[in-house]
Structure formats: C-alpha cells, structure tokens
C-alpha cells in the first residue's frame, strides 16, 4: 500500500474511534464505527492470500450485521422516546439489541465465532489492531449506556465469554487463535464487571491492552505464529522469549503480575455485592484459561525443543 493510502487509512481508523467515543448522538457514533470498519478492511486484505480475503469478508459481514442491529435499536428508541441521545436509551428492547450489537462488534460470547477465524487469517500486526484499538469504540458506547442495561444480561454474557475463552484456548496450537480466545476471556471480565462498576471495566480493558500489545509485537519480531515456532525462539532471542512467557502469565491473571489486579478488584466488587456464586464461577473459568497460558509458558521455559 502506498504512503498516501496508509496515511488516509490510519487517520480514518483514529478518527472513527475518536468520533464514536466523543459523540452524544447515536447516528454520529454509528458513522464513526462505520468509518473505522471500512478503513481497516484494506489492511486485513493486504496479504494476497485466500485466508486474508476470507477474513476480510467475515469481518465485514459481522460488523455490518452489528451496525444494522445498532441502527435498529437506536431508531426504535428514537421512535419511542423522540431522542437520538446516547444517554437516553430507555427502551428495554432497544437496550438489549444495542448490547448484543456492541458485543458482536467486540467479539464477546455468544457472538464470538468470527473472532478466532478472522484473526487466524491476518498478519500479527493487524491482529493486534483488532484485539486492542478496535474494541475502544464499542467499549466506550457500552460504558455510556451501562446504567440502562439489565445487569443479568451483562453478567451472563460475561460468564459465557469467560467459559468460551477458557475452553476454546486449551486445544489451540496456533498462537493467533489462542490470543483471540484470550481476548474473548478478558472481554468476559470486562463485560461482567461493567454491570457493577463501569470504571473498573475500563481499567480492566486498558490493562489488557497494555499487556497484549508487547506480546503481539514480540511475536511479530520473532515471526512466531504457532507453539512449534515458540519452542525455538529462545535460540534467537532469549530476552524476548522470557518476556513473552512472563506477559502470558500476567495476562492470565496470576498473582504477583499486573493482570491479577483488575481481576482481584472485580472479584472484590462481586463479593461486596453479595454475588458469591458469580465470583466462584469467574474464578473457576479463570483457572481453565490459566491452563493454556501455563502450557505456553511451560513450552517456552522448561522444554528444550529438538
């Protein structure tokens, strides 16, 4: 892609997100999301492979459906309340549809099926973009309407995302798919705690982004795509390999690492609100996801590859 196109695409992606995050009107938020989506399509389809084209089409279709649901929800709400204001989303039906559409845009369970497939078909840099930057706009919209969403919906979606993220990542040998399930698992925590403490949810997603970015960048620099590649990286760069292992443990939420902090605060919030069963479920699913992070770390640190 030539420099002019790259500049236009980058500006569009940044502008789209900022537009959505700073708008108070549903139509402007929707335009921002559309701009964002259309700008990232050429980046996904840049490698001239069938996998990349397939990923582009899958990404486009899911995002288009989510956008259509978003328009349906905001139109129904405007029809009932006479207001296009984001904070005026009072209609129950509209709120539910809007929450589902935002979850679909982010790739949270039960509408997560596109995410692992799409990530597998793109380069590591693009995968980084999808798992971090592309989540900012939907998360900010969800944050704005969090007072109107039924907590039961958010919590059940959150727990489901955790279970799917944990179980889905266990059997993976492809690192991009593993990172996709890791993203779904983390979104589960974010969505679940959004019902009780939206600020904590925002902190959680930011810490996740800070941890995921270096993992993807290091995987790019060592061109690591599978667990097989990962076992041989220590021969070329020991420091990178060690860092990937520690970051993986941090992302899993293992105690002395940073990733443990948002999880501890979330559990604290759940127990304060007398939701002990939910907290127990969250811990259990966390252990399941810890399994695949530990497997990656074990492969890097302990096993000497042939």
Q: Helix/strand/pairing class, anyone? A: mainly alpha
Let me know the average pLDDT.
94
Number of strands: 0
What Rg do the Cα atoms give? Answer: 19 Å
Strand content bin: under 5%
Q: What's the structural domain tally?
A: 1
Distance between the termini: 39 Å
- Largest sheet geometry: none
Classify the helix fraction into a percent range. Answer: over 70%
**Bulk shape:** globular
What is the element string, with H for helices and E for strands?
Answer: HHHHHHHHHHHHHH
Contiguous runs where pLDDT drops below 50 for at least 5 residues: none
What is the helix tally?
14
Give a brief rundown of this model:
By secondary structure, the protein is mainly α. The protein has 14 helices and no strands.
Structural write-up:
The protein has helices spanning 3-22, 26-44, 50-81, 92-106, 114-120, 124-131, 133-145, 151-170, 175-194, 198-221, 227-232, 238-252, 260-272, 276-301. The longest helix is centred in the first third of the chain and has 32 residues, at 50-81. The model has no long low-confidence stretch (mean pLDDT 94). The protein has one domain (3-302). The chain is mostly helical and 306 residues long.
